[in-house]
Design brief:
Layout (H helix, E strand, L loop, with lengths): L13 E5 L2 E4 L4 E4 L2 H4 L8 H11 L12 H14 L5 E5 L2 H16 L3 E5 L8 H5 L15 E5 L4 H7 L5 E7 L12 H13 L3 E5 L23 E4 L10 E5 L18 H16 L2 H16 L5 E7 L2 E6 L3 H12 L1 E2 L1 E3 L3 E4 L7 H18 L1
Parallel strand pairs: 3-13, 5-6, 5-7, 7-8, 8-9
Antiparallel strand pairs: 1-2, 2-3, 4-10, 9-10, 11-12, 12-15, 14-15
């Protein structure tokens, strides 16, 4: 048996990570400005992360939700404090896709409706429901989903208002910042209209913060820049710093009966230990503030560069469009400078480093981008 050849991969085998530095099996080092799709929030092999997992391994690695797990209560309390959603209920799962699936279930249970309103260009995961609300025909299988979905453009406020005038949708799902679609964000006016209309029609507002959440934007959740409170918030990626864990934050006014949601592995002891260590590290090392300040510096410096067309994002979730081929820039960064970055949309370089990246390392990336623009032209 062999691994299915399904991913477009760099021919590099990474075997070690420490802080923001990765090492491959040949001993070559790389600077990680992508964090494995934004998963590495507090840095590779962070001391709190390692300590939490190793100590938990000595206690209890896993048991199901058939028994109480005090670590879940600690995680919920810390997450509420960090996010401001102090009175919400937390349902734990394993991935962002699962978190979104559970959000849809909550919305349908509460409203009795079957339709979801979603945003074009979004990415919400690859499971059946999550992929139904992901506007990408290339990854949608022919069997489809029972969820009925309508899509609107993130810039079309008039279509939003027309769509949310009636009580037909269980929920409207929108990312705090769209990652896969080129690091794009709805306007303040769009967000405010969304909140008012959802409330008027008893449509649940689901904020997908799987990639843009967990302090990456400089606020704990990106939608909080617009002073909006969602009915349901989904989290994942950076929540576990590489350990699979995700969550669905649910308004306490939304009453669910026992058994409506469930999972075998979700909220296991190791997952909770990892997630607790992330929240403690974010707080003790002021990583949210660091993400904001380093991101502001990075974006302001990029805008001064010849060859940079547009810069989008907040904090350490940044998308860069160039006057030259962005894919060539990305290739040059890794081949010539040993810097790992990501890609988004059709022509956007995507930057998602650990949230404790320092100014000196940001300047290394800036210098490499500036040189690469000339070298690939």
């Amino acid at each position: 048996m062999k691994i299915l050849d399904i991913y477009a991969q760099y021919p590099i085998a990474l075997v070690k990570g420490e802080g923001i530095i990765l090492t491959d099996d040949q001993g070559k080092k790389y600077v990680d400005f992508y964090g494995g799709h934004g998963v590495i929030s507090i840095g590779h092999s962070h001391p709190l992360f390692k300590k939490a997992l190793t100590e938990q391994l000595d206690q209890l690695a896993f048991y199901s939700n058939a028994f109480k797990n005090p670590l879940q209560d600690e995680l919920a309390s810390l997450l509420g404090e960090a996010s401001g959603y102090t009175d919400y209920n937390l349902f734990l799962s394993n991935s962002g896709a699962e978190a979104n699936e559970n959000a849809f279930k909550v919305a349908s249970f509460i409203t009795g409706r079957k339709k979801i309103l979603a945003v074009k260009g979004a990415f919400h995961g690859r499971s059946a429901g999550a992929i139904a609300v992901t506007d990408n025909k290339k990854i949608q299988p022919p069997f489809g989903s029972e969820i009925e979905v309508d899509f609107i453009d993130i810039t079309n406020e008039e279509k939003l208002k027309a769509s949310l005038q009636t009580q037909q949708y269980a929920a409207f799902i929108i990312e705090g910042i769209q990652g896969v679609n080129g690091v794009r964000e709805a306007s303040e006016s769009f967000w405010n209209a969304t909140r008012l209309l959802c409330k008027h029609t008893n449509t649940l507002l689901i904020a997908d913060e799987v990639q843009s959440g967990y302090a990456r934007s400089g606020k704990f959740f990106a939608h909080q820049y617009h002073n909006v409170t969602a009915d349901v918030v989904t989290v994942g990626k950076g929540m576990g710093n590489g350990f699979p864990v995700a969550g669905t934050l649910i308004n306490p006014d939304l009453k669910l009966e026992k058994g409506m949601l469930g999972t075998t592995f979700g909220g296991g002891q190791l997952a909770c230990a990892a997630a607790i260590s992330v929240l403690k590290a974010l707080k003790s090392e002021n990583m949210q503030e660091n993400a904001l300040h380093q991101g502001e510096f990075f974006m302001s410096e990029l805008l001064k560069m010849d060859g940079v067309k547009t810069v989008r994002g907040r904090g350490l979730m940044v998308g860069i469009e160039f006057n030259v081929d962005a894919k060539a820039i990305r290739q040059n960064l890794i081949n010539t400078y040993g810097i790992v970055t990501g890609f988004s949309g059709t022509d956007i370089l995507r930057i998602l480093p650990p949230l404790n990246v320092d100014r000196a390392t940001v300047k290394i990336l800036l210098d490499a981008i500036k040189a690469s623009i000339t070298e690939v032209a």
